Model the fold of this input.
Amino acid sequence: MKFVDEATIKVNAGNGGRGMVSFRREKFIPFGGPDGGDGGTGGSVYLVANKSLNTLADFRYQRTFKAVNGEPGGSADCSGRGGEDLEVVVPVGTVVYDTETEETLGDLTHDGERILVAKGGRGGLGNQHFKSSTNRTPRRATTGYPGEKRELRLELKLIADVGLLGLPNAGKSTLISVVSAARPRIADYPFTTLHPNLGVVYVGEHKSFVMADIPGLIEGAAEGAGLGIRFLKHLQRTRLLLHLVDIAPPDPEADPVKDARAIAAELKKFNPELAQRERWLVLNKTDLLPEADAEKRCKEIVRRLRWKGPVYRISGATRQGTKELCQAVMRRLDELAAEQPRVEPEA
Done:
């Protein structure tokens, strides 16, 4: 199925049922009075997160969702049946916006979480509500209120602990394929990855984290070069970024340092907050150079970048250094989790 991470839909809540004009007519009760019931409330529309979904592709085929209207009131003070609520299933990680006001209605980050996006209309009043000492036979009832109508923009942001960042063919897909069960497309040409991939990395017993691989960036991505920066939003929920750099690019004139700086610049253009997130330098494809040359090249890249953070040397193809990298990532994620302030439950 094609990966789709944005969709626009229309939601219509059900209208309320009309009230009833009715009078009690029974033997031996000549003046029974009004007994018209109220109309039922219209059904509301909810969005519900489901972890079994990983794309918004279904919304390409169905874009309008309408809940059931409430039924009219009946005689003998009987209220109409309320319309059944409608639940629209979306992937975990979906952010919901109102297209008219640009208001963020909700962020569904947990399986089973749901939000109300369109409230059903209230039912109309039956004529029993309009009786008085001066109007004992009211012939008035109200119609039901209309349900809310909204146009929503759904935006899927994948939920992952670690995000991979780098140029096309930096080895991101190879890395995620050797440390997890993910099987992305891998080839020796740029932009092999056309949509994000997720993989669960198991480090030990009850120890794992989720890694996200997004399509590669190139200089000018913020202006639409390559695949642009539309997939960078999938890194916004990550707690740690791994910046992969190919130390032995196929183009002899390519400069890994210049390319790394270009990626950092594109990240800053997209979201300055994301650019400030903790980022590790991962020097990949060390197997393509003799050991001494690889070590020299790595030191030169670190020196020219003036890199102050953690640096790891790996080879995704031979798995050299990948185990140590994953273990270090797991330790850091545990530290970050421990640093988060604890929220005390309300009394």
